[in-house]
Amino acid sequence: MAMRSKKRMGWDQYGVTTPLHKALAGLRRINLDGLRWRVFDAKGQVLGRLASQISTVIQGKDKPTYTPNRDEGDMCIVLNAKDVCVTGRKLTDKFYRWHTGQERSLKDQMAKDPTEVIRKAVLRMLPRNKLRDDRDRKLRIFAGGEHPFGDRPVETYVMPPRQVREMRPRARRAMIRAQQKADQQQQGTTNTRKGKKKEEAKAELVSA
Length: 208
Known about the structure:
Elements (H helix, E strand, L loop, with lengths): L1 H8 L9 H6 L12 E5 L5 H13 L15 E5 L10 H4 L1 E3 L5 E3 H7 L1 H10 L8 H6 L1 E3 L12 E3 L12 H39 L1
Parallel strand pairs: 1-2, 1-6, 2-5
Antiparallel strand pairs: 3-4
């Protein structure tokens, strides 16, 4: 009976917490009345942009009733954490460090626990105050595409389209000048080749 009760609670036979236990932990301390359950799909999303959207929802900044000293954010469920993307060379250049002296690259951390990567990114975007722990409890991250909150009225969060900033006039002019210079150099090389061919032809006629 004890073993069965432990399995129901999310513990395995060795006393180690399972992903189900971690997902359901701390829900009793959250006032779920009036909260929306928002589902984020991290597959193919850039880590920083995804974390910024999650931090906005988890603080309640997308609501007209937002107040900085009150915790009015919604529950956030993140799926497919293992398929999140990063830009540049962050996969090998970014490191996580602990006070014990241990350090681990982003690539190694993704292989070990991809959920912790998103959690750290979101927590570091939240203000460091008394509401931070309560907001952390509202964040549930899963490496795969399944979650145990099927009985809740979940809503799929649609990520806003990426807005690419237009090139500044100064940078545009520099790019045009560089392109013109490259075209001139290419045209100059072609002219020199034509001149060499003409000289070779004249030399052949003179020798003949």
